[in-house]
Design goal:
By secondary structure, this protein is an alpha/beta fold. The chain contains 9 helices and 16 strands. The longest helix has 15 residues.
Length: 289
């Protein structure tokens, strides 16, 4: 299984924290009919996206992108020591898998220049912080943390109504440490990293496009969770705040990158995760590379 890819002058590393069963397919994707699942069960099982009980298999991972000038981490996964009672596999984790994966790719926490979050859900911000002497401190001490303003404002408002634990333990401590950049859609890092608004999963969800002069790679976050959503872009996940908008955004994204050389790097597709978007009937496929 490859954990390292190249695209133009970029080197991309997958930092896998977990790859495991998540939710039954019909639960995760409410619009999925028994007939459509039956038609697709064979290839989904063959590619490791579905188990024998029709439960979706997802990867939970970060990407580290090495440009000629910066080392950038995209989405910081689940994290350790975080109270997540609704998800037993994530609750009060103490394993070294993530930091070991980072080290295996040749990086220390001090090497990361930017942490860029596609959105602020629990499994995309967890390693933003770590517990040190009873306090949450930024895991990546030299990094600037990039949060989309619409996304940050949405969770600030939500947290004011009822505490959102991942926001409190994995986002606000970064802001308090003055390591955060709350940015608009015109944000860029040099000529290599740009924001692509992709609302629907959350109001401020964004993808990140990388490459000099063209999109050599794009990191799509939770725009789609399972490869079956490329075949049927109208299948939104139950976690999408606006399922209609998410479906529209997903099809637009797939049309944009269809039949190009852009590497598509989704957050949750099972290994090898990365592929190129190709047209297939009325939908698409993410062909592994």
């Amino acid at each position: 299984m490859s954990l390292k890819f190249t695209a133009g002058d970029l080197t991309i590393h997958r930092i896998v924290e977990q790859e495991t069963t998540f939710l039954p397919a019909h639960d995760m994707l409410p619009g999925l009919t028994p007939d459509v699942l039956a038609e697709n069960r064979g290839w989904m099982k063959a590619t490791g996206a579905l188990d024998d009980s029709d439960t979706l298999i997802l990867a939970f991972q970060s990407y580290v992108v090495k440009t000629p000038h910066h080392t950038i981490l995209i989405d910081s996964c689940i994290g350790n020591d975080k109270p997540r009672p609704a998800r037993p596999k994530w609750n009060m984790k103490t394993d070294e898998t993530y930091l070991r994966s980072l080290a295996s790719a040749g990086f220390s926490v001090g090497d990361i220049d930017y942490v860029m979050c596609t959105h602020l859900h629990v499994d995309h911000v967890g390693w933003n912080t770590r517990l040190e002497n009873g306090r949450w401190v930024p895991t990546f001490p030299n990094a600037r943390y990039v949060f989309d303003k619409a996304e940050f404002d949405y969770w600030t408002e939500s947290n004011a109504k009822a505490e959102v634990p991942p926001f409190v333990d994995s986002v606000l401590p970064v802001v308090e440490a003055k390591r955060a950049e709350i940015v608009g859609h015109d944000f860029a890092i040099g000529d290599h990293a740009r924001i692509l608004p992709t609302p629907g999963h959350t109001p401020g969800h964004v993808a990140f496009a990388f490459g000099r002069g063209k999109d050599a790679a794009v990191f799509s976050g939770d725009l789609m969770h399972s490869p079956i959503q490329t075949h049927y872009p109208e299948l939104s996940a139950k976690f999408d705040v606006d399922q209609t908008q998410a479906a529209k955004t997903r099809r637009g994204f797939l049309e944009r990158y269809c039949d190009t050389d852009t590497l598509c790097c989704p957050a949750h597709f099972p290994s090898p995760s990365i592929g190129k978007i190709r047209r297939k009937g009325n939908g698409f496929v993410c062909e592994t590379v």
